[in-house]
Amino acid sequence: MLKREHLIVSGKVQGVGFRKYIDRKARELNLSGWVRNRSDGTVEINVQGPERALDELRMSAIKGPERSKVVAVQKVQGDADRTLDGFAILP
Is 19 a catalytic residue? Predict the structure, then answer.
């Protein structure tokens, strides 16, 4: 069963390869959705897939890539969005 999560990641998460890190992890887990930088310095992730894979991606977001410093991850669960196909880095 597909589930969807919307994550807002704050801390030192822009300019450190965070979006590419999430993109790579999401593709490894065969998740659909997107990741993008927000003007307030946070990173937004909209992702869906099996619950176990979402848990793994969320844990990866909490850890972040080596140069990042994640302070908080806010999570909102939602219904699956059948229009999401593949994973992308948005501007």
Answer: yes
